[in-house]
Design brief:
This protein is mainly beta. It has one helix at 108-114; strands at 2-5, 49-55, 67-76, 82-87, 90-91, 93-94, 101-107, 122-131, 136-145, 153-162, 170-171, 178-187, 192-197, 201-203, 210-212, 222-230, 235-243, 246-255, 259-261, 264-267, 272-278, 283-287, 293-297, 300-301, 307-308, 317-323, 332-340, 345-352. The strands form six sheets. It has a five-stranded antiparallel beta sheet with strand order 1-2-3-7-6. Strands 11-18-17-13-15 form a five-stranded mixed beta sheet, with no helix packed on it. Strands 19-21-26-23-24 form a five-stranded antiparallel beta sheet, with no helix packed on it.
Amino acid sequence: MHVIHGARLLLCTALMTVGAAAGCDSVDEPLNVECPDGTGPFKLADSRITGTFAFEPPVDPLTRGQTIFISGTAHHEDGLAIREIRVAGVAAARDEFNFARWSATVSYEAIVTASATSAESQVQLEAVAIDACGNRYPFAVGVVAVDPSPDIDVQSLSIAVEYPGSATFVPADGRAPAIVRITGTGRAAGAVVSVTTDRGDLRGLDEEGKVVLAAPAGETGTATATLLFYGTEAGTAIVAATVEDKVAVGLVKAEGPPSLSPRLATLGAGSSLEVDVSGASEIRCSAEVSADLQVLYGTDALGATATLIEADEAGRRVLSVQAASEPVETSVEIDVTCTDAFGQVGGGVYRLGEATFPDGGGEEPPPDDGSF
């Protein structure tokens, strides 16, 4: 016998006499019922109902068309009438006064639609009581093993990607995830879906790269599973889900930090250089301050406080590096730092000296890996 205890074990020793307690389920209903101020939702630890329920666990996982018989006890700590008890959404029979003893026959279909099936093919059952004040109190929980894929018939499979906030990508350094939601229609609840990606990190799969579709409580016709995708490199990841003969594909875009072009350059006295700033989101840039070499955004010089760099009519984000005509120092170097909305950082280094622009010879800048 599988016995599940609630907040406290009920020890029922005698039935209350008719009308002995306010709010009891008697022929003469009391006119004034004192109800608590709070209306919930209540958790098990807050429950004013105590009790138990028990059932014989099936030898094999419960499957379609099967039922389990559950019986239990209940007691209202405030002496109010218990109007209803439900297990996995199924109404229980009142076997004794005020549901002091009750019972319910619960089907497989009710169990798997009342709560999500775990990766271990288990469903948590919850016994809930509704009292004379209309408050809903959970008072006992238990777990039953179920067959996750009986008579499953997935009609269609789809993948939807939700990016964080208002973004249209995830950062390539894994700072924030996208939500990957897999949805099946038809008899999809309990379907085991295999999911792969060609890049990035998918969280929420079991060790075999699978996830179980679950239907929301009380709903049929669709079932879903939710995964988290974290970027590990810039590019577009292909996420593929398969179940039976159905295949769904979703694309997740990951962007690296802002980049500056050219990222490294040396300017001669009196010269200037345009620098293109690229990135997929809002970008703010700051720069070291020097009288001999400065970075302008429009007509304003950048300083230690980051400035929002917006695109011009041509869609370019442009900075200008300018060297003084008569510099005080013969050798000056300044850093420019740009940050996107996720905090990813890129930048460039510009020097004063003998000009070595990228298209005119000079040093070859190393690959831009986000560090500078």
